[in-house]
Automatic annotation (TrEMBL):
Organism in which the protein naturally occurs: Hemibagrus guttatus
Superkingdom assignment: Eukaryota
InterPro entries found in the cross-reference section: P-loop_NTPase (IPR027417), Small_GTPase (IPR001806)
Record's protein name: Ras-related protein Rab-20
Biased composition annotated in UniProt, kind: Polar residues: 128-137
Region (Disordered) residue spans: 107-137, 201-224
């Protein structure tokens, strides 16, 4: 995932219940996510400029790439295309792309945290977030969809034959977890069948990074 550090924290929040292991890397992080009978490999490149040169390595052979921008920063949206799109050249030819806006908690009251169910009676009523306290969204969903179309064009893919932009553009908050689960569950549901198809056709989709102690391990690859 070519992302800001704030989405990295969202990955940790999503995966801490289910990840088998977390391995820190220079310029990013590697995770294994248990999803049904499969282990999904996730590379997080952190997106920082000093690690830009490592991006193509992380994306090599990727079945899916999540490109992330800051919804409150138009500059982050511009840099996402200018600096990071070329790093996807090493991804699989049929790689699935998602365009993700982060920091929705700063622009949308619906992305704010809520009290856990059943605790409302024991806590003071939470004040709703007023519209005046929210920041202006600098990158709209329409902008994300336009970028998705440009990504497909850059990769030489037929837009009509690919997943629609409406399904592959997300607005999330790594801080509150808003839509983070939906993002990864959607990606996994799309990626796993594609990898299984390749496996049945005799192609190897990932490198086995660990030897399972017992039984047979099913692995799927996803560079985010």
């Amino acid at each position: 995932m070519l992302s800001s550090p704030r989405l990295t924290s969202g990955i940790l929040g999503y995966t801490e219940r289910k990840f088998k292991d977390t391995v820190s890397t220079v310029g990013g992080a590697f995770f294994l996510k248990q999803w049904g009978p499969y282990n999904i490999s996730i590379w997080d490149t952190a997106g920082r400029e000093q690690f830009h040169g490592l991006g193509s390595m992380y994306c090599r052979g990727a079945a899916a790439v999540i490109l992330t921008y800051d919804m409150t920063s138009w500059q982050s949206y511009v840099e996402l295309e200018d600096r990071f799109l070329s790093l996807t050249d090493t991804a699989n030819a049929d790689c699935i792309f998602a365009i993700v806006g982060n920091k929705a908690d700063l622009t949308d009251s619906h992305a704010q945290p809520s009290d856990p169910e059943g605790e409302e009676e024991n806590k003071p009523a939470r004040m709703s977030v007023s519209s005046s306290s929210l920041q202006r969204k600098q990158v709209n969903r329409e902008d994300a969809m336009a970028l998705y179309a440009r990504v497909l064009h850059y990769k030489g893919l037929d837009e009509k034959a690919c997943l629609p932009a409406e399904s592959m553009c997300f607005e999330t908050s790594a801080k509150t977890g808003y839509n983070v689960d939906m993002l990864f569950e959607t990606m996994f549901e799309l990626v796993v069948p594609s990898i299984l198809k390749k496996r049945n056709e005799g192609e190897s989709s990932t490198v086995d990074l660990e030897a399972p102690s017992t039984g047979k391990s099913n692995k799927a690859g996803c560079c985010t």
